[in-house]
């Protein structure tokens, strides 16, 4: 069953992708092995995160980007994340109806992920979901979040390029600073740019970017105007995103990003493996519990024994001055 589902995903089968993503959300038995089987086939998709305040037109912008990417011959995956509700399923659901140009296109896949209150689970589901779409051959994956809080900032950490969307006259520039989004944005977008005050919002953002602390060789964050409903400025936005990905490759930032995300995934896998083996009913675990209960050992020693760790493999910083 596992091999068949993995093969379906690698072939870009929509049904296979949907089934595996559902299994990921449920953390179904065997799903970790399925994700592991896909890993060697990942690493080619450009992951673009889209965030900003409600009403800024993120979903419409995601639709416009998907349409333009398809016009350029690139396949697209879309993951919409709703960190606030277990029921709404994410704002992108409404765009499934509006994205008529993409209806029935086998090279576009759209999925919503709801957290159901589990922020850590959300992060893992998002990362695994990105791997599925990457392995399925999507050239670009658009990751949309609903709000502008810390959860969104954390989620954007898995994206290669982060787009922060603002709209004219809503004080979004100040809101971006409060939410910490000024620093995480790789491209600022002022959407609904045909509305009054668009140029002022662009100027405010550019002024704040100039005043922000910059490091040597840092990416020069652009501010791009768009009108997603009119498909205006979208080509230019994609050009900026492509330019950012190229800059990441040139300066080794992409490798650093991959390394950080890989470290997180190794830790998650280790935790999941340990939790699977360390539970009542597993003979070794039950025996260790008995040893602790009878005071023949302590919990830390029992845990290290179960995990195969020894004092020699865990140096004490106090006795190793070169560390720390």
UniProtKB/TrEMBL annotation:
Name this protein carries in UniProt: Methylmalonyl Co-A mutase-associated GTPase MeaB
PANTHER family the record matches: LAO_AO TRANSPORT SYSTEM ATPASE, LYSINE/ARGININE/ORNITHINE TRANSPORT SYSTEM KINASE
NCBIfam families according to UniProt: lao
Keyword Nucleotide-binding assigned: yes
InterPro entries (UniProt xref): AAA+_ATPase, GTPase/Isobutyryl-CoA_mutase, GTPase_ArgK, P-loop_NTPase
Gene Ontology MF, one: GTP binding
Segments forming domain AAA+ ATPase: 44-195
UniProt entry keywords in alphabetical sequence: Chaperone, GTP-binding, Hydrolase, Nucleotide-binding
Species per Swiss-Prot/TrEMBL record: Ornithinimicrobium avium
Superkingdom of origin organism: Bacteria
Family affiliation: Belongs to the SIMIBI class G3E GTPase family. ArgK/MeaB subfamily.
Pfam families for this protein: MeaB (PF03308)
